[in-house]
């Protein structure tokens, strides 16, 4: 997801050696914020579901270790993202108070923190669980920090579509931690998150498009306009609905999941249609909020069905 604006001169990352003068005086809360805890919680939750729906049983110690490593790896990705994106985060209202652009954590410290957590989480997952899960985690961190953050985000309006793969890998990592392999079920869980990501983030970008334009980030509404963005949201919602029901259609989810996935998918489509026909900031916010609930409920029902 290229765009030339008055802010394009700021589009380079803050270099680690630019703030070497003194160490930061950051508190524990600042380092926790650097990990993007809300994103981390979703990553851990979807990884847990992938682990629980996998065949067989996972030893509790192995399962806990895997989830801890996945959580740390997700946090490492967030730290690296905040290090590199500090310049554009400082321009956008919703991100200006993050620890690096706000000056509470020096860029070099954020970089070192992210790299250390990345190496540690992957190494621990490989040593304590299995190499496939560790390899998937390493690839996910690389994809988010390098492919998405450093390349796609600043270069193409398809940044969220391609970069969304990074957020879709956790169920596959959980499955791999439990089985040592990759099953069709874990691929379906990957696809649910993959097709959910564009309508979710494009709904947000519709009412934050001025901030993205000011920061020089070529989000779809900035490059193609709001009307095209609403059309793309509808297309992806139409694809997401049957993909979301696939676990039930393929026979590895129960009737409760089937009913909720069908109703949830229909509501996603209805909200996308409403956004297309009566565009407003409020309808975009409604779709954004519902998309979060939709994904959480789908994975929660899968989890409940598995443990009951």
Task: Give me a quick take on this structure.
It is built from 14 helices and no strands.
Class computed from helices, strands and strand pairing: mainly alpha
Q: Report mean pLDDT, rounded to a whole number.
A: 91
Described by the principal axes of the CA atoms, the overall outline is flat
Largest sheet: none
N-to-C SSE series? Answer: HHHHHHHHHHHHHH
Q: What is the helix tally?
A: 14
Number of domains: 1
Radius of gyration: 20 Å
- First CA to last CA: what distance? 42 Å
Q: What would CATH call the architecture?
A: Orthogonal Bundle
Uncertain parts: 1-21
Structure summary, number of beta strands: 0
Estimate what percentage of residues fall within beta strands.
under 5%
Can you give the helix content as a percent range? over 70%
The CATH class name reads Mainly Alpha
Q: Predict the CATH topology.
A: Farnesyl Diphosphate Synthase
Please give a structural write-up:
This protein is mainly α and about 300 residues long. Residues about 1-20 have low confidence and may be disordered. The chain has 14 helices and no strands. It has helices spanning about 30-35, 35-55, 60-85, 85-90, 105-130, 130-155, 160-170, 170-180, 185-205, 210-215, 220-225, 225-250, 255-275, 280-305. It has one domain (about 10-305): Farnesyl Diphosphate Synthase (Orthogonal Bundle).
